[in-house]
UniProtKB/TrEMBL annotation:
<protein>
    <submittedName>
        <fullName>DNA-binding HxlR family transcriptional regulator</fullName>
    </submittedName>
</protein>
<dbReference type="GO" id="GO:0003677">
    <property type="term" value="F:DNA binding"/>
</dbReference>
<dbReference type="InterPro" id="IPR002577">
    <property type="entry name" value="HTH_HxlR"/>
</dbReference>
<keyword id="KW-0805">Transcription regulation</keyword>
<feature type="domain" description="HTH hxlR-type">
    <location>
        <begin position="8"/>
        <end position="109"/>
    </location>
</feature>
<keyword id="KW-0804">Transcription</keyword>
<dbReference type="InterPro" id="IPR036388">
    <property type="entry name" value="WH-like_DNA-bd_sf"/>
</dbReference>
<dbReference type="Pfam" id="PF01638">
    <property type="entry name" value="HxlR"/>
</dbReference>
<keyword id="KW-0238">DNA-binding</keyword>
<dbReference type="InterPro" id="IPR036390">
    <property type="entry name" value="WH_DNA-bd_sf"/>
</dbReference>
Length: 119
């Protein structure tokens, strides 16, 4: 994958994290404040994600170096996921998106209030 990266850095970033599920997986791992999460913990924090989609995205993100996967040799098997050092560098990106989303939500609410006042 790294041999065929686009020239544009924005395009590279979107390639790595641009899908909805990847952002939400990152959100859950950032919220854990460094605590590794099991598959079921990740799934419970992300609305409407299927096991297949979560598994697929975790593998992609692991291959990209954003998350690490730790397998414990026990029965039943236990697997935990955490952010890598590289993945942790995405925290400010998600924080900025959170702040923008909060601002936009307030904008929409204010706009709706004004429209309701004018009726």
């Amino acid at each position: 994958m790294t041999n065929n990266l686009p020239e544009c850095p924005v395009e590279i970033a979107l390639l790595m994290i641009g899908e909805k599920w990847k952002f939400l997986i990152l959100r859950e791992l950032i919220r854990s404040h460094g605590k590794a999460l099991r598959f079921s913990e990740l799934k419970s924090g992300i609305n409407n994600i299927s096991d297949k989609m979560l598994s697929k995205n975790l593998k992609i993100m692991e291959n990209a170096g954003l998350i690490s996967r730790r397998v414990f040799a026990q029965v039943p098997p236990k697997v935990e996921y955490s952010l890598t050092e590289l993945g942790t560098t995405l925290t400010p990106v998600l924080r900025s998106l959170f702040e923008w989303g909060t601002m936009y939500k307030q904008y929409v609410e204010n706009k709706n209030e004004k429209e309701n006042e004018n009726e």
